[in-house]
Amino acid sequence: MPTLQSLANLLTDLNIKTVLFDLDGTLADTAPDLAYALNQVLIENGHDPLPFEEIRPAVSHGGIALIRLGFRMEPDHPEFDALRLKLLDVYRDNIARETTLFPGMAALLNNIEQQGMNWGVVTNKPGWLTEPLMKALGLSERAACIISGDTCNNNKPHPEPILHGCKLAGSDAQHCVYIGDAERDIEAGRRAGMQTIVALFGYIADTDQPHEWGADMAHHSPEAIQEWLNSNQ
């Protein structure tokens, strides 16, 4: 029979100390600027631009997915890599043209800090894009960690970058939660041994099945995430 002290220790162990976010489609709404970059490259190459609604679900999957979508070609095509690099160059030059935090996210970050927790970012986006974006959003100095796709030897869905983020933030995995809008985010968080949340407000395609990804929970807004965090303090 557990003692009152052991029950108290268990509740303490469940407390969340660090909240880790995916970047594109979770922390920030980067789709407008990535869609702009893809359409600029399409136009430059004699193609019609795509509607934003068609581009948005592909954004979380990076430049490869965007070139696949826009040009209907695979990575083994001889022109694929040049188009991808051009897309990234245009995006870098317009990295915060329209990008903002998702509605309610600024309040969530403030509340995390006010409750004595910290937060960080773990993304597959390369550092040469992640760092200027975080700076443009005014978040670089606030984040306890910023882990990019080239920070570690592996990227998501491998757990290494998330565990590295935990270490830099000063928390164990059992005291962290990872929030993302792609299946690889949830797989990485689960493999790292932490609780996971699907950001249903992110870039989830109609063909995705987020409730089958094995996350601990899924929320439609940052406000709902805050309510859950409040219940775990």
Largest sheet: 6 strands, parallel
- Please report the first level of CATH classification, the CATH class of the largest domain: Alpha Beta
* Helicity level: 40-55%
Q: What is the SS-derived class?
A: alpha/beta
Number of helices: 10
Cα shape: globular
Radius of gyration: 18 Å
Query: Any guess at the CATH architecture of the largest domain?
Result: 3-Layer(aba) Sandwich
- Tell me the name of the CATH homologous superfamily of the largest domain: HAD superfamily/HAD-like
CATH topology category name of the largest domain: Rossmann fold
Walkthrough of the structure:
The protein is an alpha/beta fold. It folds into 2 domains: 4-29 and 101-231, Rossmann fold, CATH 3.40.50.1000; 31-93. The protein is 44% helix and 12% strand. The protein is built from 10 helices and 8 strands. It has helices at residues 4-14, 31-44, 52-55, 62-71, 80-93, 105-114, 127-136, 160-169, 183-192, 222-231; strands spanning 18-21, 28-29, 100-101, 118-122, 146-147, 176-180, 195-199, 217-219. It has a 6-stranded parallel β-sheet with strand order 5-4-1-6-7-8, sandwiched between helices. Strands 2-3 form a two-stranded antiparallel ribbon. Strand 4, helix 7 and strand 5 form a beta-alpha-beta unit. Helix 4 packs across helix 5. The longest helix is centred in the first third of the chain and has 14 residues, at 31-44. It is globular, with a radius of gyration of 18 Å. The chain starts with a helix and ends with a helix. Mean pLDDT is 93; it is low at 1-12.
